[in-house]
């Protein structure tokens, strides 16, 4: 069975049972073989037979508990994990699974007790830390949530789910730069995880908006309230990836001075990147109307090419 040859393993079990039909270990092994083969019904039947012949069979209780837990029969899962712990109170696997069962049943107090007991023996069980962090987050205890989930991230740095949950806690704590890093790790590990990607963008935006230098610049430029000031602010927003704020600054710019060509070109860049062709055409035409090729040679050439290509 250790080599993955389940058919041969079952043959040996059946031969053994011909000579010792009441040998609990063989029935438990048949249960494992059925379990690994995906035949959960047969697996339960064999584990129950093992317990009929040995009511102190730890692995039979443990594996029955796992099967019941997987199918959502939490009461039966609870009973089997409890019996496993009566056989061996030091069995950490049963302790963890009992805590997880309590968690599924909504009994957070009991779940925390089991996970805390487990971690007192082995503080390096990442899933126990993760689950304690999830429950703390649900209880609005953000500091405890951060403590446990960050520990889980250290123990399992390749878990996208853990990094996602750590980022979620950090966002609630307004620790946006750290949240950005956590969601970045999640996105790196799971490139198709839309929640990680979306939250990464939100965290990046929060970092930019809370940047003290940018805030000071915004206050200064807004107080000046001129087209050049709004243009400078818009470019800073662009560097930070704040497209909504960038567009708003350009719009305010052309409202203050409709002939300020650089802001029309800035609007063209935004619309062109967003594939808003009609708006991009208008912005380019306004730029060329108020700007010259001598003042803005690169920008002017860009708009000429855009309008020429767009006419075909």
Automatic annotation (TrEMBL):
TPR repeats at which positions? 24-57, 58-91, 92-125, 126-159, 160-193
Q: Which SMART domains match?
A: TPR
| Name of the featured protein | Tetratricopeptide repeat protein
Q: Which organism is it from?
A: Corallococcus exercitus
Q: Which UniProt keywords apply?
A: TPR repeat
- What superkingdom does the record give? Bacteria
The family database entries (PANTHER family) matched by this protein are listed as: UDP-N-ACETYLGLUCOSAMINE--PEPTIDE N-ACETYLGLUCOSAMINYLTRANSFERASE 110 KDA SUBUNIT
What processes in GO biological process is this protein linked to? protein O-linked glycosylation
GO MF annotation: an example = protein O-acetylglucosaminyltransferase activity
């Amino acid at each position: 069975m250790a080599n993955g040859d389940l058919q041969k393993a079952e043959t040996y079990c059946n031969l053994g049972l011909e000579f010792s039909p009441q040998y609990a270990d063989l029935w438990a092994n048949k249960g494992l073989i059925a379990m690994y083969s995906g035949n959960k019904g047969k697996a339960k039947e064999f584990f129950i037979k093992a317990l009929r012949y040995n009511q102190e069979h730890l692995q039979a209780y443990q594996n029955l508990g796992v099967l019941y837990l997987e199918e959502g029969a939490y009461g039966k899962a609870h009973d089997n994990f409890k019996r496993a712990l009566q056989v061996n109170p030091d069995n950490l696997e049963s302790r963890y699974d009992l805590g997880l069962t309590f968690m599924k049943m909504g009994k957070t107090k009991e779940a925390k007790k089991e996970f805390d007991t487990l971690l007192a023996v082995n503080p390096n069980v990442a899933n126990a830390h993760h689950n304690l962090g999830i429950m703390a987050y649900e209880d609005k205890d953000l500091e405890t949530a951060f403590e446990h989930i960050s520990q889980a991230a250290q123990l399992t740095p390749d878990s996208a789910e853990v990094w996602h949950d750590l980022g979620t806690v950090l966002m609630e704590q307004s620790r946006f730069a750290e949240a950005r890093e956590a969601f970045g790790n999640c996105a790196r590990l799971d490139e198709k995880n839309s929640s990680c990607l979306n939250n990464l963008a939100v965290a990046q935006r929060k970092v930019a908006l809370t940047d003290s230098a940018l805030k000071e610049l915004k206050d200064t430029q807004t107080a000046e309230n001129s087209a050049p000031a709004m243009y400078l602010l818009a470019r800073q927003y662009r560097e930070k990836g704040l497209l909504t704020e960038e567009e708003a600054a350009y719009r305010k710019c052309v409202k203050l001075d409709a002939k300020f060509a650089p802001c029309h070109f800035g609007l063209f860049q935004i619309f062109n990147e967003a594939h808003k062709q009609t708006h991009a055409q208008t912005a380019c035409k306004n730029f060329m109307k108020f700007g010259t090729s001598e003042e803005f040679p690169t920008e002017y050439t860009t708009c000429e090419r855009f309008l020429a290509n767009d006419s075909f």
